[in-house]
TrEMBL record:
<feature type="binding site">
    <location>
        <position position="223"/>
    </location>
    <ligand>
        <name>Zn(2+) 2</name>
    </ligand>
</feature>
<keyword id="KW-0862">Zinc</keyword>
<feature type="binding site">
    <location>
        <position position="158"/>
    </location>
    <ligand>
        <name>Zn(2+) 1</name>
    </ligand>
</feature>
<feature type="binding site">
    <location>
        <position position="241"/>
    </location>
    <ligand>
        <name>Zn(2+) 2</name>
    </ligand>
</feature>
<feature type="binding site">
    <location>
        <position position="201"/>
    </location>
    <ligand>
        <name>Ca(2+) 1</name>
    </ligand>
</feature>
<dbReference type="InterPro" id="IPR006026">
    <property type="entry name" value="Peptidase_Metallo"/>
</dbReference>
<feature type="region of interest" description="Disordered">
    <location>
        <begin position="356"/>
        <end position="376"/>
    </location>
</feature>
<keyword id="KW-0645">Protease</keyword>
<dbReference type="GO" id="GO:0030198">
    <property type="term" value="P:extracellular matrix organization"/>
</dbReference>
<feature type="binding site">
    <location>
        <position position="201"/>
    </location>
    <ligand>
        <name>Ca(2+) 3</name>
    </ligand>
</feature>
<keyword id="KW-0482">Metalloprotease</keyword>
<keyword id="KW-0378">Hydrolase</keyword>
<dbReference type="InterPro" id="IPR021190">
    <property type="entry name" value="Pept_M10A"/>
</dbReference>
<dbReference type="GO" id="GO:0030574">
    <property type="term" value="P:collagen catabolic process"/>
</dbReference>
<feature type="binding site">
    <location>
        <position position="227"/>
    </location>
    <ligand>
        <name>Zn(2+) 2</name>
    </ligand>
</feature>
<feature type="active site">
    <location>
        <position position="224"/>
    </location>
</feature>
<dbReference type="GO" id="GO:0008270">
    <property type="term" value="F:zinc ion binding"/>
</dbReference>
Length: 376
């Protein structure tokens, strides 16, 4: 080998190593940006290269992997990057404590408008609202005078449409062209909630199955309206509130998780003789015991988010930190009451540990149980 060759080989090797290092750094940077955007990583955690920053990044990657059930153990692998690159909703998966309080509208009759929309966009939007109305006490009506929910096509850096929006006129979130973020929405507020739909996407604006290279507007709108009503992301793939877009998005229908989430906020419409939902929130850090069988023992559940009693069925949603499971239990009439009593007792016991108003709570719960024994 001549010296010239040797230098060429070395130069080449250095270039390859540099390229590998660059690509690692690029994907790290991409992951950091993603994890910060969606609430997995604090903004200021990884400014400096330190052991702590590496640890924080690893922890954030592990959280993301746990939320979406991707194997990886905190290591940024191909499957994880691939998931991060899929088209999705721009709203955070993990809310920080400040955002965590439940936000809902104080009324059940809400108005909406789609700013500068065509007839076909309006028709699709109407159907999206109907999907939520069919499964809750909510009623929706289009009204362009001071609507509660304002939807618009936006792109790149953009402004809010409605002057009632408090604070800056500039939306803090970017819509970065095709792919990535498809749309984002704001939780209910006292005045107006906006939904911004990325006009750079190739939208399918019909009530039919969409061609592969398009995004179904009905599906995206139904998801974003969920946020505008106060719902958060759900890691279950069949939920409308799942953040990513899967290949099959039509027909659009609520999953049981969506149904329970909207019931939890607004209840059912008053038309049949249905028992109202019992809702309760318990904050414990206990890891959930999982059991999806029909015969699940409700008393064994350690952390319960919402309980819905509908006809002769008890549905319970549970959220571990990054996980949620649904139990649907169909009981004979007597069995239902028994299960419900046991569950309320169990919840009361849990409250005893975590609340100082135990007695009041317990009384209230026994009162609920008594009410149910009348209605069952
Ligand atoms: C790393 O974190 C620990 C505990 O949070 C802290 O005491 C320490 O100062 C941090 N080190 C650096 C270099 O930030
Ligand atoms: C939502 O409402 C529709 C129409 O009434 C109904 O067919 C569907 O079963 C409901 N969804 C759930 C999850 O109950
Ligand atoms: C729209 O809302 C305005 C103000 O809230 C109200 O006066 C008007 O009657 C509504 N229009 C329709 C068609 O409901
Ligand atoms: C449903 O009915 C109850 C009792 O009849 C009533 O208090 C409540 O206001 C009704 N809710 C709605 C949304 O109409």
């Amino acid at each position: 080998m001549t010296p010239a060759h040797g230098i060429a080989v070395i130069a080449c090797a250095i270039a390859v190593i540099a390229a590998i290092r660059d690509s690692v750094a690029d994907s790290d940077e991409e992951a950091i940006r993603f994890l910060q955007t969606y609430g997995y990583l604090d903004g200021d955690n990884v400014q400096t290269i330190s052991d702590n920053a590496t640890l924080a990044l690893r922890h954030a990657i592990a959280l993301f992997q746990e939320y979406y059930r991707i194997p990886g153990d905190g290591v940024l692998n191909e499957a994880t990057l691939e998931q991060m690159r899929k088209p999705r909703c721009g709203v955070k998966d993990i809310l920080n404590d400040l955002d965590d309080s439940p936000r809902k509208w104080a009324k059940t009759h809400l108005t909406w408008n789609f700013h500068l929309a065509s007839e076909s966009v309006l028709r699709v939007t109407e159907v999206a609202f109907e999907i939520w109305a069919a499964n809750s006490s909510l009623m929706f009506e289009r009204n362009s005078t001071n609507p509660d929910i304002v939807i618009s096509f936006r792109k790149d850096f953009h402004t809010f449409v409605d002057p009632r929006h408090q604070g800056s006129r500039i939306c803090p979130s970017l819509l970065e062209g095709p792919g990535n973020v498809l749309a984002h929405a704001f939780l209910p507020s006292s005045e107006v909630s906006e939904v911004h739909v990325d006009s750079a996407e190739k939208w399918h604006i019909e009530l039919t199955v969409n061609p592969d290279d398009t995004i179904h507007l009905l599906h995206t709108l139904t998801h974003e309206i969920g946020h505008a009503l106060g719902l958060h992301h759900n890691p279950l793939k069949d939920a409308i509130m799942y953040a990513f877009v899967l290949s099959k998005t039509f027909p659009v229908r609520l999953s049981e998780a969506d149904f329970l989430a909207i019931q939890n906020l607004y209840g059912l419409r008053n038309k049949s003789e249905i028992a109202g939902p019992v809702t309760t929130t318990v904050t414990t850090t206990t890891i959930a015991t999982r059991d999806t069988g029909n015969s699940a023992d409700l008393c064994a559940l350690r952390r319960v988010d919402a309980v819905l009693v509908l006809e002769n069925r008890i549905s319970v949603t549970m959220a571990g930190k990054f996980d949620s499971e649904i139990f649907g239990i169909v009981c004979p009439k007597d069995g239902l009451l028994e299960q419900l009593r046991a569950l309320l007792k169990r919840l009361a016991q849990m409250r005893n540990v975590f609340s100082s108003e135990d007695d009041l709570e317990e009384e209230r719960e026994e009162e609920e149980a008594r009410k149910f024994s009348h209605s069952v």
